[in-house]
Amino acid sequence: MRAVAALRRLLILGAAVAPLAAVAVGAGTTAASRSQWPEKAGDAKEQPEQVPMPPGFQIVVTGQEGPVFADARGHWYSVWPVRQLRNGPVGERKGQPSCDRTIYRENAGLMSPYPPGFELPEVATRKSCLDLWPAVIADKDAKPVGKWTIVDRKEGFRQWAYDGYALYTSVLDDAPGQVNGGHSQGSGEVGVRRPVEAPSMVPPQFKVDTTLVGRILQTNENYSVYASSKDAPDRSNCTAACLDEWKPIQAPAYAKPRGEFGIIDRSPGLRQWTFRKQPLYTHVGEPFQKQYGSDVPGWFNVFLQFTPKPPADITVQDSPTGVVLADRNGKTIYMYNCADDALDQQ
């Protein structure tokens, strides 16, 4: 009987073995992407855009997720947007918080082919959703500002929301800037919480993606952005045959410098974007969401910031599924990922 119970518990967990870096690599990362941190990565941090916020709120630039909204202690805010799992949706819809004081004791059958109704692990010590992700409470006199709104909870208190989604913190974070309770990339079929990202100060033509190595710059069309070691500050040396392979990213006539992004004149009527004085390019003929250009000597992807380097015994390797963490011999490191398949997705 014990063996049967143990088997049932394992099935309920929806456990899976996966490469360790799979949860940290952005959707645009491929086997051809930069496979290691540069020797001189630098300590520069991504520059967030300052936006209206309620009193006591702030923007914290985290090492992995970049700028996120946080409370006065520096603990990040998270949301739990509805997500379609294998057998049904889980999460919250705008204006409808569902994370409450309920302590679930049986699985919901959302993530596996097995039916609901099996007892969850560690029922005797299991906590509620609000115990693990405390709601961000709004004072009775608080008023909405910008994208920040307030929802009335069935429990009788008011809760802050961002873009309609109720806000929470995580009990797993015990220091400013930590994001241990979730991440922006999702995790397979698990309904994870994700940080509320603060807007980055980038021109409208660009966006930023989170990868294992850092916060990488892309165009709005999902093309990788590159810079050349042969260029000088605020001066492009890519001419003639170089332009057959590398296309300068043009700034519209109405565009103005923004934050760390500048503009240089290549020729009359042709203006090129720069980042930290590095002229920016795309790789001619490269499909979107690929990073083949970083394999060309002297050319590299543009990062707004790098994540902390792993320990010396941990390496970063290319694989058919993307960039993964490996040991010093290059063998992929795996993690055993468990989720208990309850409605609150602990």
The helix content is: under 10%
- Whole-number mean pLDDT: 83
List the strand order in the largest sheet. 7-8-9
How is the main sheet built?
A: 3 strands, antiparallel
Order of helices and strands: HEEEEEEHEEEEEEEEEEEEEEEEE
Instruction: Return the structural class.
Output: mainly beta
Q: If you compute it from the alpha carbons, what radius of gyration comes out, rounded to the nearest whole angstrom?
A: 23 Å
Number of strands: 23
Contiguous uncertain segments of 5+ residues: 1-17, 19-35
Tell me the β content.
Answer: 25-35%
Number of structural units classed as domains? 2
What does this structure look like?
With 346 residues, the chain is mostly beta strands. The chain has two domains: 52-198, no CATH class; 206-309, no CATH class. The protein is 5% helix and 27% strand. The strands form ten sheets. A three-stranded antiparallel beta sheet has the order 7-8-9, with no helix packed on it. Strands 11-12-20 form a three-stranded antiparallel beta sheet, with no helix packed on it. Strands 15-16-17 form a three-stranded antiparallel beta sheet, with no helix packed on it. A hairpin with a 2-residue loop joins strand 16 and strand 17 (278-279). It is globular and about 70 Å long. The relative contact order is 0.23. The model is unreliable at 1-17 and 19-35 (pLDDT under 50).
